Every structure is written in structure tokens, then in C-alpha cells.
Amino acid sequence: LDDLNAMHQRLHDRLAELGGQIDAIFFCPHSPEEQCACRKPRPGLLLSVRDRFGVAASDLLVIGDSLRDLESAWVAGVAAVLVLTGKGSRTLAEHRERLGETAVYRDLAAAADAILGVA
Fold first, then answer.
1. Cα separation, 32 vs 26, whole angstroms
2. Which long-range contacts (CB under 8 A, 24 or more apart) does 109-116 make?
3. How far apart are CA 34 and CA 42, in angstroms?
4. What 3-state class would DSSP assign to 81?
5. 80, 86 contact by CB (below 8 A)
6. How far apart, in whole angstroms, are the C-alpha atoms of residue 50 and residue 47?
């Protein structure tokens, strides 16, 4: 938890240097054996985001590299895109049929550009 908090603090600091901010970071602290509602592919974490910010699930977006990321979004009624970095290429190769019309981008930067309409 200390390492995770340090990583999050670095994200906050680096983004602040660029004039940005992070409003919240959500994560599941539970082990798989605990069978909690917030551990992917269950939708609890995304539902917490929705509730905290008072937005509709249709106003959220998940960018992920694993099928579990996408499944969590789909169950919560949230749009999802796949990035090919990390586990993304393997996810695409192994689960292409399950992905349906899911948008796929080479990396987070390409996904952000497309979402912001700068690409």
C-alpha cells in the first residue's frame, strides 16, 4: 500500500507540474479470495466512480488492456476501449470475437487523441 500511495503521489505531482490534477484514484485493495464486488471483472469499482461523481454510467469510459478491464466496464454499462500496450495485444489475439465493436488503439496516447478528437 505504501508503494501504491507513493506511485499515486508521483502521478499527482507530475500532473500538477503540467497544470493538471487528478480528482480521485480508485483501486481494489482486496485479494481474489475475498470475492469482493470491486475486483474486476465485477463492476463495483466503476459503480463507486459513478456514484462519487454523480454521473451516468454512459458518461464514463474505461481504457484497458485486459479482458477483465473490458468486462468490468460492460457489466457496469460503461463504454470501453482496448489499448494494445501491456496485455492488450494478447487480449486482442485471444478474445477478438468477444470484443465485438470495441475500439482498439495502439496505446493510451492514441486513445486519448481519438477521444479528444485531435487525431
1. 17
2. 110/83, 111/63, 111/81, 111/83, 115/61, 115/81
3. 12
4. strand
5. no
6. 5
